[in-house]
Structures are given as C-alpha cells and as structure tokens.
Amino acid sequence: MKQLTASMAGTVLNIAVSEGDSVSAGQTVMTLESMKMEIPVEAEFGGNVEKVDVEVGSFVNEGDTLVTLGE
Amino acid sequence: MKKILIANRGEIARRIIRTCDRLGIETVAIHSEADGELPYVSEATEAAAIGPNPVAQSYLQADKIIEEALKRNAEAIHPGYGLLSENADFARKVTEAGLIFIGPKPEVIDTMGDKLGSRHTMKQAGVPVVPGTAEGVSDIDAAVSEAKAIGYPLMLKASAGGGGIGMVLCENEQALTQQFDSVKNRAKAYFGNDIVYLEKFIANARHIEVQIFGDESGNIVHLYERNCSVQRRNQKVIEESPSPDLPESARTKLCEAAVQAARAVGYTNAGTVEFIVDENNDFYFLEMNTRLQVEHPITEEVTGVDLVEWQINVAKGETLPGQDTIHTNGHSIEYRIYAEDPKTFFPSPGTLSVLKWGTGARIETGYEEGNKVTPFYDPMIAKVILTGASREKVLEKSRKFFDETAIEGVKTNLPLFDQFIESKPFIEGNYATAVLAQWLTQQKEEKTV
User: Fold this and answer.
1) Secondary structure E strands in B124-267
2) Which superkingdom, per the lineage (chain A) (predicted)?
C-alpha cells in the first residue's frame, strides 16, 4: 500500500478519483485550495485507489494522507 | 473623525492603522481565529474576533462587521483592498447603517465592477477601450462567430472577473472552443455570474495604471502612473513609478484619459484606472479598481502624498488639493514578496522562523518573525518599496537590499528577484507583461543546455 500525501496545507476543492479506480503516475487525483490558489495533486506513482482519505471541503495539513493506493 | 474600523487584515490593516495613529484617529481591527496573533491586531486601538478562518465566515461577514463598528462607536469603515473593498452591497449597507464608507459611491463600484459595463461607460466617455464584443457572448457558436470579426489571438474574459481569475488567452478557434465552458463555469463559481466576452489580445503590451482621486465637490486629480507589467499568473509582482520607457507626451495623455474616465462616473475617493499600452504607446482602458491599490506606496514615495490620509479627508468631505500642486520626484519600485515556490509559483504556507529585512527600504508587511503564514489567505508576506533619485539608484539599492534579506520557514520568491533584476529587459526597462514568464522559460532552457 502506498499513500499520496499533501505537499502543503489547504482545503480539498474537488476529488477526481474514487475507490476502485486505477490511476497512473502523473494523473491529477484531486485539487487543493491554498492561499487563494488551486493546486492540482498529481499521483507520484500508479495503482488502484483503495481509499480516498479526505472529503471535499476537508482541511488537510502538509503530510496528511489524501489517497491510499494498492497494487 | 475619531474612530475607524478596518475591514481587512495583515499589511494593509497595519498600513491604515499607521496613518490613523499619526492623525490621532482610533482604530478597530477585525480578525479571524488564525490571525489573532498578527501584529495588526495588537497595533489597533481595539480588536474584534470576527469568526473562523475561511474568509466567507470572517472577513466577508458584512453584517457582522457593520454591527461591530456600530457597537464600538466607529464612525467610518475602511475596506482596504480585496475582500469587501469592491462590494457595492457592503458599501451600501455601511452607508445605510449611518456610517461612512471610505471609498467611492456604491453605484460607481457597481458600474466599474462589471467589466462589460465599465467598457461601455468608458467608450461613451471617449476613453479608448480594447476592441472586442460590446455584449456578453452567450454560447460557443456566438463566440466563434464574434471571434472571426475580432481576430486571434484574443482574450476570453468573465465580465465579473478580477484579480487575474476568469480570463484565458485563446490563440485560435480550437483553444476558444476548449476553454469556453470552463471559463464560463469558473466565472459562475467564483463570481456568481457567468457572462463572458471577447477582447482582442494586444501583443507585447505593458500594464500601466494611473492613480486618481475625486472629492465630493467634483474635483478629479491624478497622481501619475505605475508600471505593473512584471506579473505571474496575471498577478503583479513588481511595480514602478514613473514607468520606464514611456515618453512624456504619452504619459500626459494617459493621465488625462484616466481623469476623463473618473469624471465620466463622478468618481469620489481613491481609484486606479488600468490601461494596456502597446508598442506604439497607444493605450486602451482595461479596468478601474475602485479602492486603494496594493501598490499604492510607490505613488506615495514619488509624490510625497499619504494616500490613506487623502482617503480619510475626502470621506470627511474635504476638498482635494489642485492638480498643479501634485508633482513626482525620483523613482520608486515595489517588490511583492510571496510565500511561494519561486519556480512553480505554488504557495508555501508555514512559520516565518527567520524574517530579516535588508536596509534602505520601506517595508509593508503583516508579519513579524515567528508569525505563521496560514493557507487561508493571500500568500503575500510583504511589499518592499525602494526609492531613489533615479531608476539606476533604486536598482543599486535593490541589489544591496536583497543581499541582506533572509526569510526562512517558508519558500519565497526572493531568489527570483535577485536574478530577475539583473536581466536585460528589466534593466533596460522596455519590458511587457510577458517578461517574467519569458525570462523563466529562458532560464530553464539555459540550464538544460
């Protein structure tokens, strides 16, 4: 299991993937809003989405898990 | 006027407090939970916690803010910039509550806040506007057909847009088709209004704006121009006054057009008329900002005027000094220091573990060392304003200043300034709005070679 984590604090604006989806490295999985700016979160690696750990509107801190990916 | 509530935060709240202190006016600061520790809160005479961190629950709570002003016997509200400053409903409510809104009339804010409406007003007043559609374009078919008449490249813009949000450059029909729905949707989401229109794209344009002021007696004066062409993501990064590479005759025409624009709407208080200026020094009205501008300090430095003091005086009903008393001296440059990655421009919130400023500058900042730059608000940490007898002198001072300055705990765009001010286009001063993006691309290419 691998985790995609937030590179900065912010609010989850939208989520582009759901459980069971397969994602590839570089794909945008969600958008965070921080300091009045939209920041796309790209998957650093590919895999199957096991769990989306946040909801739209959640506030996340740097390092928080956003999405858990399985093989 | 004895007490003013400042409906804003950070550096601009602090800036307004400073002038009020000097004039013997008491101040009320408002703050969200996260901002309670910031210097402006303790520097105000009084402070009121206004709500949780998201702006919608704190700094945009118009009714709550007005209530607070009334409760604390403030006579006026200064909106600063951003937030509620260009919200006509807020200005109206402030006035209806028996308070003074330090800014123009709500009707003027309304007219100028709508880009199509202001284009129309300016055209009628004889101020040149960028060629484009007079009305909004309702769907993609209408857009494509209008675009044929205007010609590519063109800008697709949200009529209610601002701050660089809600506009896209379209090089061709394919781009316009691709972007149309997204700009419309974003306009709806951000501004609650999905009217979009098309404007011809002016190549190699400079963004030059004129500071104007109007009073209740109908006097309009200008305080000369600012060149704000160094931008990233359509947001300003460096501003200077006077504008380099602008002949005196063009400068005069530009300032006159700005006064004409302000007169057309019966403008009162501080405002800024933004123009785009092409390679031949022909200029077009872009928009009017009906508030104090972020980059107002460079105008203060070259004219010697305290713009906040003038705002208060005009709000009290005083008459402005005559145009012939307003002169500029020397040169002033403002650098906006952002908490962001200097390469990707992505924001970088965090704690300012080190905040050490160089010498010789006017620093407008909402933070002190140890403060937190939170993810809830704008990433601007400070405005650094350097002034001297000539542009060369200011650049010399800038080099020294950046050498001595250190910020740690968050990523900042300081490294960018260090190098960019040594670039050929900036030193020569004949740069256009694409200058920063072009320079960054060039830097990347040089590194890969």
Assistant:
1) 154-162, 165-170, 196-200, 206-214, 220-232, 235-241
2) Bacteria
Using CA atoms, how far apart are residues B93 and B63, in angstroms rounded to an integer?
Answer: 8
In angstroms, how far is CA B206 from the centroid of its own chain? 15
- Cβ separation B375–A9 shorter than 8 A: yes
Q: Which of B65, B87, B102 delimits the end of a domain?
A: B102
What's the CA gap between B105 and B392, in Å, rounded?
41
Q: How far is A71 from chain B (nearest CA, A)?
A: 30
The domain ranges of chain A are 2-70
Other CB atoms within 10 A of residue B330 CB:
15
Write down the pLDDT at residue B161.
82
Out of B119, B206, B226, B291, the active site residue is: B291
Strand partners, B48: B30
Q: Kindly state whether residues B152 and B245 are assigned to the same domain.
A: no
Query: How many cross-chain Cβ pairs, A to B, lie less than 8 Å apart?
Result: 34
Q: Measured between CA atoms, how close is A35 to chain B, in angstroms?
A: 5
Query: What are the mean pLDDT values of chain B's consecutive 10-residue runs (449 residues total)?
Result: 98 98 98 97 98 95 98 98 96 98 97 91 94 93 95 93 81 95 88 92 94 98 98 91 97 97 97 96 94 98 98 98 98 97 87 98 98 95 98 97 97 94 96 94 81
B3-6 and B26-32: which strand pairing?
A: parallel
For B385, the token pair is: 């304003």
A39/B contact by beta carbon, under 8 A: yes
* B378 within some domain: yes
Instruction: Say how many domains are in chain B.
Output: 3
Residue among B137, B146, B145, B246 nearest B195 (CA): B137
CATH class for domain A2-70? mainly beta
